[in-house]
Design brief:
Shape: elongated
Strand order of the largest sheet: 1-7-2-5
Number of strands: 11
Structural class: alpha/beta
Helix content: 40-55%
Pfam family, one: DUF5682
Largest sheet: 4 strands, parallel
Distance between the termini: 149 Å
């Protein structure tokens, strides 16, 4: 250790001895860490994540030093992405994505790592300098994205993967926190917040670090940042293993690069988090020769790209307070104006440097003076506060608030008052926000935005970045190119309306097909149809769409990681869906329908259909029976209407399903976990597909045996079984009617009668002939039951029908409308069909026997058949000759014969 910080070390040791009785190891250690970092041959630049003070210090240092090599703490395999930043509108995030893993647990997939960039961050300034300055090399030295998941424990992944707001721009990705400075010691953080009189960590950091360091010189900045990083690192008692491995990794990579290129370390700059600058690993420093073995990467295939980011997404990703990044952007802009600095931009233009380049100044102790000296007042802060006070009043007026010039003065003075009460030399943006809320917020918000939101908008708002066309993957560019005929700017984040008249402009049909594909692959709000539909056998004439593709650019970019065209991605997803461990026959049929509907591929549909047959054969439950029945019916109707014969897989599916459901039917009837809806769907498949199944070689006896072997106890399933018996001809309608009448007359059965009705309603699908009978049963119940029984029963009946048979109730209502009279007046004289007494047929003047005269005249055949059956038939003799019946009729009614005779000549 050098003697540079002897005075500071002695002061801290004395303070520790006074308060704690013995010299503090932590206080002495942080001074040693600062001394060690500043004495390193390779210049270390400590940074904090998205810190404007770090960005301003980086701009100053790059103008002064003009390094030839910049080592940056960022995943080394993301280096090709950095060049694409010049095609983007910041903030954006560098992303590594893996949908299929090889070497990791399957439940971890998909893997995603993001590294967001803002214009105010020191990392972006270093990148812009390196890319825009000739003969400058940028080297990323941090672990690869593959090592991020190799080294991170599962609980740490869950800690870092915070879901974001603002449309989930980062999703559940693991964030690479470059320069994350936050105490992992809860008691210390609470102590700092309490005594700093602030609400959250972002406000404390802005007040006590950002604002003082924004105007500090370079040596002061470095010493303060390393001291803070060392303090937080020493207070952290667990979870240091991964950070230490990262430090070993980075120093190993830097030594390898220097050895390979022979670059002078004096012309290099190492940009890392402040906590890493205070590292104590044995590999620290160029003088160290301690080896470190880097494990090989797994076989996981990683995809890289840029995705849009936003201030709110960064705040949610890394646990910052709302508006913290926007306030940092405002501090960055003020610092540039105050110091008259020229930031570095990826604009493709030559970089403008300061005219003079001062030589390296000797390092001195700046910590002692910085820690004991209050921050100096600056006229720029006063002018900024005046500007904010005036602008917030103007913004409040536009949003419905009754604000005046007096309110602007009140906000200005209240901001100063609040800063004084909180022991601050100058008001911060947080003081200004509190003052604006105090002076302008009323008992209710007159518009959509309250004062807190208006202050965030004034300070910069939630800026959203965008990936440029040239930086998009090929799939995303192809999508945008194919949607050009719509005449819309797909880069806009606002929702746009697209109108497609497909009959007048057939050239827009490919755009319609693409939009329906995007509807299946992107979030719902990205592509939303307003008018038009896509179904088998249907074709829209006009369509209307609400398109927000620009807002969901991240999702479109990630599709580009899966393939080179949108059709290829969709086909891969269909194959993955039917090949996954949770695939079912219903999933297979849905994939077949999607293949026909969105891709028009008969080949793919046949492949997926064959897979659906295999899935159905191995299923041991009937949970998806309703979905299977609905989808196979729709597919059969489509193939019958469009093809001369059914595909081979369809025939196999029908025969396999017939045998499958016949086998499982008795168990499904008695299984408590299987609902009546599933049993009804099974019967619907068996009865609805029976003719086709029998023509394909199935046996009807199998179905009849399955029904006879079923013995349910649930009322709804009992009703379904009776319906199956009726459909098979085993139970006449008269007997079924008698059973229901008996139940209506039994008070003990009445509470469960709604469940029987639910079963009968669901039986309408497999046994359509029961529709009049169900109307009859309901009518009898409402017509015969007294109110004391009917009123408590009615809610249960409605709930049962609403829950179990929503699709069949309309059919029931249609049948009731056909049965009942059309007008209320006709009800008085209306007799229900089931209550009418059948009228006997009138007697006919025939012979006393009903035997056909033809059989009497030729009895040989009937006599032979009767003899085979064990009967001895007797035949009556003819009582009158042929034609005697006509003669008798003429004798009884002579008037007609006389009238006819008079008309003849």
């Amino acid at each position: 250790m050098t003697e540079l910080f002897t005075e500071l070390r002695d002061q801290l040791a004395a303070a520790a001895a006074e308060f704690g009785g013995t010299p503090g190891e932590i206080l002495a250690g942080i001074v040693d860490d600062v001394d060690r970092a500043l004495g390193e041959e390779l210049e270390i630049f400590p940074v904090c994540h998205h810190s404007p003070a770090s960005g301003l210090a980086m701009v100053r240092r790059l103008h002064e030093k003009r390094p030839a090599v910049i080592y940056l703490e960022l995943c080394e395999d993301m280096r090709p992405l950095v060049d694409e930043l010049r095609n983007c509108l910041l903030p954006v995030a560098l992303q590594a994505f893996a949908s299929e893993v090889d070497g990791f647990d399957a439940d971890q997939a998909p893997l995603s790592v993001v590294a967001p960039m803002t214009r105010a961050s020191a990392e972006y300034q270093a990148i812009a300098y390196a890319l825009e300055t000739p003969d400058v090399e940028l080297v990323l030295v941090d672990r690869s994205t593959d090592h991020v998941f190799q080294w991170a424990p599962r609980e740490e992944e869950e800690e870092h993967a915070r879901p974001t707001e603002d449309g989930a721009l980062h999703g559940e990705a693991v964030g690479i926190e470059i320069g994350d400075l936050r105490p992992r010691f809860a008691e210390l953080e609470q102590y700092l917040l309490h005594h700093g009189k602030v609400r959250h960590w972002s406000e404390w950091w802005d007040q006590y670090v950002e604002q003082p360091l924004a105007t500090a010189d370079y040596d002061t900045y470095r010493q303060v940042m390393v001291m803070i990083g060392s303090l937080f690192r020493r207070l952290r008692r667990s979870g240091l293993e991964v950070d230490e491995d990262r430090e070993r990794y980075m120093w190993t990579r830097m030594r390898e690069h220097l050895a390979a290129t022979g670059t002078d370390p004096a012309r290099c700059l190492y940009v890392c988090g402040a906590a890493h600058a205070a590292s104590r690993v044995e590999q620290f420093g160029l003088a160290s020769d301690a080896p470190f073995e880097i494990s090989p990467r797994t076989a996981t295939k990683w995809h890289y790209g840029l995705i849009p980011s936003s201030h709110s997404a960064i705040e949610a990703q890394f646990g910052l307070a709302g508006g913290a990044v926007s306030i940092a952007a405002a501090t960055w802009s003020k610092g540039l104006r105050r110091g008259k600095l020229q930031p570095f931009e990826l604009s493709g233009k030559p970089t403008k440097f300061n005219k003079t380049v001062p030589g390296p100044a000797p390092v001195a102790d700046r910590l002692s003076g910085f820690l004991s000296r209050p921050p100096a007042l600056d006229p720029v802060d006063e002018a900024e506060l005046l500007e904010w006070s005036v602008d917030i009043v103007r913004l409040a007026r536009r949003n419905g608030y009754l604000a005046s010039t007096a309110d602007a003065i009140a906000i200005y003075e209240t901001s100063i008052l609040l800063a004084g009460m909180r022991n601050r030399a100058r008001p911060t943006p947080y003081d200004f926000q509190d003052a604006a809320i105090t002076c302008l917020e009323k008992d209710k918000v007159p518009g959509r935005r309250d004062m807190a939101r208006l202050c965030e908008i004034l300070l910069g708002g939630d800026r959203v970045g965008q990936v440029g066309y040239a930086a998009l993957p090929p799939l995303a560019r192809d999508v945008l190119d194919r949607l050009e005929p719509l005449g819309l700017d797909m880069s806009k984040r606002t929702v746009q309306r697209a109108l497609l008249d497909l009959r007048a402009e057939p050239a827009l049909r490919p755009c319609s097909d693409l939009l329906w594909l995007l509807r299946r692959l992107l979030p719902d709000d990205a592509v939303r149809p307003i008018m038009g539909s896509r179904a088998l056998g249907e074709q829209s004439i006009q369509e209307s769409w609400d398109l927000g593709i620009g807002k969901y650019q991240r999702s479109l970019v990630e599709l580009g990681y899966e393939g080179v065209s949108i059709e290829q991605v969709f086909e891969q997803r269909l194959r993955s869906a039917v090949a996954g461990p949770n695939a079912t026959a219903a999933v297979g049929l849905a994939a077949v329908e999607d293949a026909l509907l969105y891709l028009g591929s008969t080949r793919l549909a046949d492949e997926l259909g064959s897979r659906a047959v295999d899935l159905l054969a191995v299923e041991r439950t009937v949970d998806d029976a309703p979905t299977v029945l609905r989808r196979i019916r729709r597919l059969l109707n489509h193939f019958r209407a469009t093809q001369p014969e059914l595909p081979q897989w369809c025939a196999k599916f029908v025969t396999a399903g017939y045998a499958h459901y016949c086998t499982l039917l008795p168990t499904a009837f008695t299984d408590d976990d299987t609902g009546a809806e599933q049993v009804a769907a099974m019967l619907g498949f068996l009865f609805g597909m029976e003719n086709l199944a029998l023509s394909l070689g199935c046996d009807h006896t199998q179905l009849e045996l399955a029904v006879r072997q079923s013995h349910p106890e649930s009322p709804a399933k009992v009703a379904l079984l009776w319906a199956a018996h009726f459909q098979l001809g085993l139970l006449p309608l008269a007997d079924l009617r008698a059973r229901c009448d008996t139940m209506l007359a039994n008070p003990l059965v009445l509470p469960t009668f709604p469940q029987y009705i639910s079963g009968f309603v669901q039986a309408i699908d497999p046994a359509p002939a029961l529709k009049p009978f169900v109307v009859e049963v309901l009518s009898k119940a409402f017509g015969t039951l007294p109110d004391r029984v009917l009123l408590p029963w009615l809610p249960t009946l409605i709930t049962t029908l609403r829950t179990h048979s929503p699709a069949l109730v309309p059919t029931l209502i249609t049948e009731a409308a056909r049965t009942f009279p059309p007008t209320p007046a006709a009800l008085d004289s209306w007799t229900p069909p089931w209550s009418r007494t059948p009228t006997p047929a009138p007697a006919t003047p025939t012979a006393p026997t009903n035997t056909n005269p033809l059989l009497v005249a030729h009895p040989t055949t009937c006599t032979a058949l009767a003899t085979l059956l064990g009967h001895a038939p007797t035949w009556p003799e003819p009582t009158q000759p042929a034609g005697s019946a006509a003669a008798t009729l003429l004798e009884l009614h002579p008037t007609t014969a006389h009238a006819l005779a008079q008309t003849l000549p």
